[in-house]
Amino acid sequence: xxxxxxxxxxxxxxxxxxxxxxxxxxxxxxxxxxxxxxxxxxxxxxxxxxxxxxxxxxxxxxxxxxxxxxxxxxxxxxxxxxxxxxxxxxxxxxxxxxxxxxxxxxxxxxxxxxxxxxxxxxxxxxxxxxxxxxxxxxxxxxxxxxxxxxxxxxxxxxxxxxxxxxxxxxxxxxxxxxxxxxxxxxxxxxxxxxxxxxxxxxxxxxxxxxxxxxxxxxxxxxxxxxxxxxxxxxxxxxxxxxxxxxxxxxxxxxxxxxxxxxxxxxxxxxxxxxxxxxxxxxxxxxxxxxxxxxxxxxxxxxxxxxxxxxxxxxxxxxxxxxxxxxxxxxxxxxxxxxxxxxxxxxxxxxxxxxxxxxxxxxxxxxxxxxxxxxxxxxxxxxxxxxxxxxxxxxxxxxxxxxxxxxxxxxxxxxxxxxxxxxxxxxxxxxxxxx
Length: 434
Fold this sequence. Notes:
The chain is an alpha/beta fold. Among the domains are: 2-198, NAD(P)-binding Rossmann-like Domain (Rossmann fold, 3-Layer(aba) Sandwich); 208-290, N-(1-d-carboxylethyl)-l-norvaline Dehydrogenase, domain 2. It has helices at 10-21, 33-40, 51-60, 70-74, 98-110, 127-138, 158-163, 175-184, 186-189, 200-231, 235-243, 264-277, 283-306, 335-344, 357-363, 373-377, 397-403, 418-423, and strands at residues 2-6, 25-29, 64-67, 79-82, 115-119, 144-148, 168-171, 195-198, 315-319, 348-352, 368-369, 382-385, 408-411, 428-430. Strand 5 (115-119), helix 6 (127-138) and strand 6 (144-148) form a beta-alpha-beta unit. Helix 10 (200-231) runs parallel beside helix 13. The longest helix is centred in the middle third of the chain and has 32 residues, at 200-231. It is elongated and about 75 Å long. The relative contact order is 0.09.
């Protein structure tokens, strides 16, 4: 099948590359000529493990191409995926659908034959009907259907998630559209991965409900972690004890500095706004948002307390600033709250991150960037583990302690423990919920 992908951001690029690996002919479109030139030169503008290899393979096979021309991509396409950004709208937190509807208008102008217009972007309930309205208004003669196909990709594991998904959700209203979507995902169906067909509104809401539920688990365990610190319990033991219950599960029960990234912050906020708009307040989700904000501030307080109540004039080494490992994504990362908070309190912050510097230099003004953990820690009064990159999991703690002026560790990912840190020469250690 011929498939057009509108937007070569994270979702659009991963989806396009993976669909081409299924054997489809995929054309990806973006307004940025610079980005398209990069992609045509087989240069991936984002960091996602394995994506560069898969892109090169399918481009060489002639199944994957890139263009700035929507008409070129849409011409003869069986399906057109809209995969543009839906950031939180300034002022009210609603998802900004400007790019989605603009893409729909461009698709309308370029439609030649029947096609399914698929919304891959995360959008509020009712958006797919809005997309259909935009196209019908511009092209009353157009032959098309709309479909909702939300993505569930984890950054750092996106290819695996696309190729071996827990489920594929497809919202459709006609058998014709369903058949097109079934052909697109036939490689997954043949390997018995679940394809869930629903109505448009259900598919739209599934995405928000899933992310809000996962964010709830994170905020829940972070609140339990704060309680553990007060009563002398260990949150890792508590999380294991409840996670072994099959009804709960162990995933997303890891205490830390709060969730971040491109999905959970904006999707929880959007779900809360959808609820308010329909007079059905999502009180749990609203509380999750508030708890997550407070968790980040609590990490600043923990770091300051570990330094005796003040970090003014202190050198602080921060290991990891991306919102999670195996990505260069800095969107809504806890570091964007914690690091400025430390700088505002008078700390001199030195940072190291395997992939975060490209975006982080602009987002974290006032920090010094180092090449590795040991150079960051040299002469430091505090070491903070903020992102659990693999290279930070087996550090030579004794070497770090000797290099530091005052060896203290704030382990906000609980990858070490107090006994190990103190045994290596650290004079103070603090984790989360321990």
